[in-house]
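[AMINO ACID CHAIN]
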Amino acid sequence: MLALVQRVSEARVVVGGATIGEISRGLLVLVCAERGDSEAVAGKLLAKVLKLRIFSDEAGKMNLSVQDVGGGLLVVSQFTLAADTTGGNRPSFTAAAPPDEGRRLYESFVAQARAAHPVVQTGEFAADMQVHLVNDGPVTIPLRVVA
């Protein structure tokens, strides 16, 4: 399972002109399920996201997690993270989980996040979304967790 984690001062997701998810300080987490992923893999990825120390402490050192700072999570599905561009200029997405499996694993990740963290907002699976964010730093971290 893949994630692209961005430390944000604010972020929101808009679908059809309406904001459906919004956070202030926290993490925008773009998530992609790959073929063969499981709920256990989603749990490992979530644990990594929640413990990732990318917020500054009082000394200005990246030493605090989103849980330490009481930040929010905005979780957005993004199958394009599985893009393979080695064969040319048009990406292939064959490594991404099929839509039904991707939805199930995305929803599992979100459910686990809501059980473990107090502020979790989401996008809408398979929707045409506009994601607005202010990347703080900028800090952007790619993550991959496998079984």
Q: What stands out?
A: The mean pLDDT is 97.
